[in-house]
Amino acid sequence: MLHKPVFDSSEIHTLLTLLGADLHYIGYRYTEYALLLMKEDEECIHSVTKCLYPEIAKQYQTSCNSVERNIRTLSQVAWRSEPRLLQKLAGHRLDRRPTSSQFLAILFAYLSRSGNLKIQA
Fold this sequence. Notes:
The protein is globular. It is mainly α. Helix 2 (26-40) crosses helix 6 (100-114) and helix 3 (48-60) crosses helix 4. It starts with 8 loop residues before the first helix and ends in a 7-residue tail after the last helix. The protein has helices at residues 9-18, 26-40, 48-60, 64-81, 83-90, 100-114. One of its GO terms (biological process) is regulation of sporulation resulting in formation of a cellular spore.
């Protein structure tokens, strides 16, 4: 039996805040919703553009392009604000800012592994 990730919105909020993001970024809510969708169906991470972005776009009544762009903006914010923390979450060196789907994968993998947030920048 596969282990189902155990994390909630408050852990997502804590993690995004540590990465320098806050609620005024549209991508903040999109990222939160994406991570919760991935928690319910981990296969979504393998088909971000066909599964995840359309579902988020539907929920927030916007386009898939808007979803991707706003998550990309959040990834840029994290990369500019806390590159060391982002690399720590990834578990390896990052030579450049992660793409939107890589950013989601990094956050999801960390939240799935940790169960509890014990991150220090």
